Amino acid sequence: MTDTLRRVAREYLVLILVSCLVLMTAIIQPKFISIGNMTNVMRQFGPLIMVAMGMTFVIIGGYIDLSVAGIISLVGVVTLSLIEPIGQFPALLVGLLLGAAAGFLNSMVITLSGAMTQAEGLFISYGMSVLYGGAALMYTGGVTEHMSYLDANLSIFRMIGSGTVGVFSVSFLIFLGLLLVLYIFQKFTYIGRAISLTGGNKTAANLTGINVNKTIVIIWTISGFMAGVAAIVLFSRSTTASPVMGRGFDLNAIIAVVVGGTSLKGGKGSVARTVLGALLVILLANSMNLLGVTVYMQNVMKGSLLVLAIWLDNIKERRQGSDL
Amino acid sequence: MRKKGLGKTITSSIVRYKAAFAVFMMLVVMIFPRTNFYSVFNLLDMLNSASILMIVSFGLTLVILSGAIDLSGGGSLVLGGILTVHALSVMPMWLAILVGTLVGAVIGVVNGYIIVYQKTEPVIVTLGTSIILTGIAQQLTDAHPISPPPGSEFMMIGNGRLFGVIPYLVIIMLVVFVLFYILLRYTQFGRNIYAIGGDYEVAEYSGIDVKKIKAATYVLAGMTASFAGVLLSSKLNSASSIYGDQTALVVISGIVVGGTSLAGGVGGVGRSLVGLLVFAVMENAMSMLHVDSYIQQIIRGIVIVSILALDSYGRKRRREDV
Questions:
Q1: Which parts of chain B fold into alpha helices (H)?
Q2: Does A302 lie at the interface with B, CB-CB under 8 angstroms?
Q3: How many CB pairs under 8 A join A and B?
């Protein structure tokens, strides 16, 4: 009994810690659980969680994707600017494809160069982020684009931004649909399970007959696609798209994945956990704001969470090693 | 053993000295357009601005040579600058500079302990520490640039010139370079770093105190980064939490261009110097040719990706050869 308890505690320590912090705030600051505040929290939930869900696959596959910041900025400005000239539906399609294409391009650079380690993938995706971010800046000339309110041709984006079906917002339903698809993909398809094996040990995965390169292409493309979706939800809600709108999403998404309990060493984790992680990261930021902790100190906390998570991952592994 | 043709020899030496070759090519290209590129002032200025990142690269090269990585250089850089600027109002200049430099050593000790003694992944840990350090830097300055007290001599370090010609920064860079060159080449410590990067386990079995040496490389990397931050603050006469945003990745790209492999064991500080020169010449040339700044960013992205991808590709080829 105590053994199981200890194992659970070890497995979910970061999750438990963050939950405790959030719970504490709820007690100290009753405003936290007011309806107004909760609606506010649910609003922020959308884009970050979508990026984090895509990021989960990359991290399970043993990489880290820093390019999502650049992809979000690029997809945001390109899609918004295309609504007028080509119509809203084609623009939406172009946006989604652009995100997936950017992710695909990342994976091509990685597979062609044979970048098999986490560090290599991280640097290459950082360079790609600089590239996409530069493309977004060049595309708009550095200015922020606005969705014009008079345009009747915006119904889809208005729907995504502020529409509701019954009690649920449209963006929440989009999230739910994507979660369902990705969850089934991860748990019940061959490729979904191949991702965990690839992340656990690429050489072994290769020897068991898994097409490692194909897996790598799939995880990066999913991440790029989800970043594209996030960009569309983001600008639909704010009705503006700036060429730097993606900044910060990369690290926040990684932290959401980690808080959810997906191992940064690859091989283990799930999108469902990431949903919980993203929710907690947002609740944490919200409770810190209510408690008057500066954004700067929140950064310190996020960085500490990252270091703590990888540290715990290692302790866990060593313990498991000695159990054998 | 395959016989090498002349063409192959030339190609392989270009690949080997790709950074020097790239610098040479850019220098040749810049002869043709009518710009002020080839003025003593511009060339020295170029070297002057590159000096700060070069100093960061010397320490970081040691970490990479030992087969690890440090992404927290930007954090150490800004924190070094900010602490020195704060300290200037309460203590003499030399002590303030020492404080700024030593903060990097402290950061290095923390990184070294978590990574080496707790056996964690350097990429993620130092990504985490760089976020922490930036957060602390923001908190200390409220995310605004801060300036040293007026009338301070501090500015002279970053802007003064020996005999009115050679910038002090270039001289300081060269001194740090020589120190690190000697350290790597002529001391046991330096040779052990290569041994560890070449094969960690062999190094450990042959009695090298691998942990202590790896941790020491983090301390040196932290110190050079924060010392560079002090110099940067002196040059700009201000310190801010945003100065280090891209430092770590630009410097790492420069180191890899120079020919120090991310796999460890191969390379040196001389190569890093040339590698960072590639970026310095490239940026200067693009500005001289009035390339749009957004296009400059795209080009920088393409160069970083190509260099790192080529480095990975080289290792893949070697893996397959074996």
A1: 6-16, 18-29, 40-65, 73-87, 93-112, 122-141, 155-159, 168-186, 188-198, 200-205, 210-236, 247-258, 269-288, 293-321
A2: yes
A3: 154
Backbone phi, psi, residue B202, to 5°: -60, -45
Rounded distance, CA A109 to CA A287, Å? 40
Question: Which of A142, A306, A318 is closest, CB to CB, to B294?
Answer: A142
Nearest to B168 by CA among B160, B179, B177: B160
The model's pTM: 0.86
CB contact under 8 A, A304 and B252: no
Residue in B with minimal Cα distance to A137: B294
Q: Among residues 134-193 of chain A, which lie with CB inside 8 Å of chain B?
A: 134-135, 137-138, 141-142
Task: Identify the residue whose tokens are 């994707």.
Answer: A65
CA-based nearest residue to A172, from A180, A160, A155: A160
For chain B, 322 residues long, give each residue's pLDDT as a single digit of tens: 455 677 777 777 766 677 788 888 888 887 777 777 788 778 888 888 899 999 999 999 999 999 889 999 889 999 999 999 988 888 888 888 899 999 999 999 999 999 988 888 888 899 899 999 999 999 888 888 888 877 777 788 877 777 877 888 899 999 999 999 999 999 999 999 998 888 888 888 888 888 899 999 999 999 999 999 999 998 888 888 888 778 888 899 889 888 888 888 888 899 899 999 988 888 888 888 888 888 888 888 888 888 888 888 887 777 777 6
Q: Which residues of B touch A122 (CB under 8 A)?
A: 123, 127
d(CA A255, CA A64): 11
Cβ-Cβ contacts under 8 Å, A109 against chain B: 305, 309
| Spatial distance between the Cα atoms of B276 and B19, rounded to a whole number of angstroms | 9
Residues in chain B closer than 8 A to A129 (CB atoms)? 301
Token representation of residue B149: 């007290």
- Contact: B129, A307; criterion CB under 8 Å: yes
In A61-114, alpha helices (H): 68-86, 88-113
CA distance B313 to chain A (A): 4
Residues of chain B contacting A302 with CB distance shorter than 8 Å: 131, 135
Number of Cβ within 10 Å of residue B169's Cβ equals 26
Element containing residue A116 per DSSP (H, E):
none
A296 to B138: CB separation less than 8 angstroms, yes or no: yes
Question: How is residue A30 annotated by DSSP?
Answer: G
Asked whether the beta carbons of A257 and A70 are under 8 A apart, the reply is no
DSSP 8-state class, residue A241: E
